[in-house]
Amino acid sequence: MNAGRGDEDHLAAGGPARHIPVLRDEVLAIADPRAGGLYLDATFGAGGYSRGLLAPAGARVLALDRDPLAVKGGASLVEAAEGRLTLVEARFSQLADVARRLDFSDFDAVVLDIGVSSMQIDDAERGFSFRGDGPLDMRMQPTGQSAADIVNSADEATLADILYYFGEERASRRIARAIVMDRAKEPFVSTAALAGMIARVVPGKPGDIHPATRSFQALRIAVNDELGELVAALSAAEGVLKPGGKLIVVTFHSLEDRIVKQFFAERSGRGEAPSRRLPGEAAPKPPTFQLPGKQPVIPSVAEVAANPRARSAKLRHGVRTSAPARPVDAELMALARLPQRAVKGR
């Protein structure tokens, strides 16, 4: 994965774009890379952040990407870094395990740039885009269920839930019903076929995003378990940062941002009022992060003009305290999963 991600419209259907790291200057200003520092770029992509983190003499970077093509593409940067960059094919939820296996610890900063990359969008064969026809895949790594598997096998209620909760698609039930009816005649195998069917069922208005945008986002999130990965990665990052280390997260849509915002609020003790606790009630856990400055940080007008995919980006960050790391929060993980019961009336 790499910077150059953007809002739902561009994520689903954006045309070719240079791989411009979103909020790069802001990310690097917060990370404040220094000579001899140790940094973790958990979403390597095209290496935009890693290059900046490696700039000071002697700085070292552990970088991860679940996409084998991104890892292969980073070989030249690994060589140029002369031992200061270690690039591993892995999900960012596995960052603590990878760091432990390679004997890395006490990072000065961890950077997470969430979502699908420009490289993935622009390659029609990956199935993320519906403006260039390709196989209905959407997998960030070549394992597990594809989008076609879900579309052609999930029951109508599950499909509707995926579209509604992961894509915030108000016409989820109508689209799910049409998918089930149409796939009985012929399975969906291409992005154009699915996008065309959605446009027929839910016609768009001039000036609106393409009618299939939210559905494609939802399927991509379901295929790659993006929200579950995010929750696990936030907790893992907390465990590998040294006191004073920075966790920096760039998100591109409201579902991601809600999880990151809630994680930092809970971990920083924001909203706690110890004096109002009931007698015998347990004291709050010590905060594991402090939240400096005004947040979220958003792209400048100039950056959005230069890179439209940046327009929905939000950056949130925290500074690690010396308090013990906590396990994954069950309530936070619940935000990453489909609810047990579907909400009626949509």
TrEMBL record:
UniProt keyword terms in alphabetical order: Cytoplasm, Methyltransferase, rRNA processing, S-adenosyl-L-methionine, Transferase
GO biological process terms on file: rRNA base methylation
Keyword rRNA-binding belongs to the record: no
InterPro entries noted in UniProt: RsmH, SAM-dep_MeTrfase_MraW_recog, SAM-dependent_MTases_sf
EC number: 2.1.1.199
Primary location: cytoplasm
Gene3D superfamilies membership: Putative methyltransferase TM0872, insert domain, Vaccinia Virus protein VP39
Subcellular location: Cytoplasm
Region called Disordered, residue ranges: 270-296
Pfam assignment, any one: Methyltransf_5
Top EC class of this enzyme: transferase
Any one GO cellular component localisation term in the record: cytoplasm
The reaction(s) this protein catalyses: cytidine(1402) in 16S rRNA + S-adenosyl-L-methionine = N(4)-methylcytidine(1402) in 16S rRNA + S-adenosyl-L-homocysteine + H(+)
Family: Belongs to the methyltransferase superfamily. RsmH family.
HAMAP family (alphabetical): 16SrRNA_methyltr_H
Known function: Specifically methylates the N4 position of cytidine in position 1402 (C1402) of 16S rRNA.
Xref: NCBIfam families: 16S rRNA (cytosine(1402)-N(4))-methyltransferase RsmH
Name of this protein: Ribosomal RNA small subunit methyltransferase H
Organism: Methylocella tundrae
Name of the coding gene: mraW
